[in-house]
């Protein structure tokens, strides 16, 4: 029997491999990060992640900002608010006070802290400076005024891959700096889970929900002093 050339066998194997791959692989294209909704509508349309945040926005009187102004919003998920409210109510329980809901806390208090997550203008990941918390003098990120003037720091961490520094995934971090402009080690930080979302009136970066809303700063004491 006449032997077939080796290249014929290889071609047949490649064909079979391609067929097998198609059995479980389906190319669905690239996910677009551009949306027709404004930021507020984007959040409102995803209640499983942001329904409590939408309540805070309404209570703070910042709905119009997130509907019509060009801003960058680092959106805290509901988990951040859950952690905060659990801490607030745990503190009140220890004092013999009734627990609170989001609607029980004055809007100006919500405004004070929510505004720290909002920045005028558009900041995509490529617009944000590098930060390295271990080498902050070399890579300090960028200090920037949030919507009502509180100083925050935004920076991009360059991750490692297979032991090689700076070539892995890049992640945005947002830190509450305030008056402490030089010591990032003391700043309270939060990691972005999804970056570069583009609703029609700006940019949104969805936070991971690791930290309390308001970074667990003085929110509890402010509520305690103002809500009986």
TrEMBL record:
Stretch forming the signal peptide: 1-17
Top-rank taxon, per record: Bacteria
Alphabetical UniProt keywords: Signal
Name of the featured protein: FAS1 domain-containing protein
